[in-house]
Write a structure and sequence with these properties.
It is built from four helices and eleven strands, in the order βαββββαββββαββα. The protein is α+β, with helices and mostly antiparallel strands and 217 residues long. It has one domain: Nucleoside Triphosphate Pyrophosphohydrolase (Alpha-Beta Complex). Strands 2, 3, 4, 5, 6, 7, 8 and 9 form an eight-stranded mixed beta sheet that branches. A three-stranded antiparallel beta sheet has the order 1-10-11. 33% of the residues are buried.
């Protein structure tokens, strides 16, 4: 459920977007050490000792379109147990037979939206992202060339849409928000785009990618 009565705290990171991103530049950026968390980013947490950790991986799919690079998202269906109704990246829990987080991300993406793993060139990983429910998510960044013959699983995702990568590389588009839920104060990141309210873990991972690819220190 979307938190109610949020308090808006716009991000004021200085925008320093790369002039011309290519797959090679993105891969090089992902190899650099991630910048330390901004002290204002109270949504960034470390899982407490004793937490039941659930490892997962998502694919952050960058689609190379003639009009520019696009990110591919899914809108999760309301009946799912985990993060129902949210906009997210395709992915899911790590299975015992997965050789690594990359395999998890590719397998889950193929199952969820029908994007064949052979159509994706892996560029690298973003730092693991933890959420209070105990999920520890590894975002795997991949590059895909169209045409994409997607076949979304209606049980997994209600829709698939794309948005320009440039939007998510502009720090001014991110908002720090907070709310109260079951007596606890919560913080989260949001990055709206044309009627799509992207928030929570997905927005948090995008914010990290923004800082990594912008060379934030």
């Amino acid at each position: 459920m979307l938190p109610a009565t949020p308090v808006l705290q716009p991000s004021n990171i200085t925008s320093r977007r790369p002039a011309a991103l290519t797959p090679e530049r993105i891969a090089a950026g992902l190899k650099r050490p991630a910048p330390p968390a901004d002290p204002r980013d109270l949504h960034v947490i470390a899982l407490a000792e004793g937490t039941r950790v659930v490892d997962a991986a998502v694919l952050v799919p960058i689609v190379h379109r003639a009009e520019g690079m696009r990110l591919l998202f899914t809108q999760r269906t309301p009946h799912l147990d985990d993060h129902a109704g949210q906009i997210s990246f395709p992915g899911g829990r790590v299975e015992p037979g997965d050789a690594g987080r990359e395999e998890t991300a590719l397998r889950e993406t193929e199952e969820e939206i029908g994007l064949p793993r052979g159509s994706v060139t892996l560029l690298g990983r973003l730092p693991e992202y933890a959420i209070p429910s105990g999920f520890r998510i590894t975002p795997v960044v991949g590059w895909a060339e169209p045409p994409l013959d997607l076949k979304p699983d209606p049980f997994e995702g209600a829709s698939v849409f794309e948005a320009p990568l440039e939007h998510f590389l502009d720090p001014a588009n991110y908002q720090r928000r907070e709310y109260r839920f079951r007596g606890k104060h919560r913080h989260y990141m949001a990055v709206p785009y044309e009627g799509h309210y992207i928030w929570g873990a997905t927005a948090g991972m995008l914010h990290v990618m923004c800082r990594v690819l912008a060379g934030e220190k």
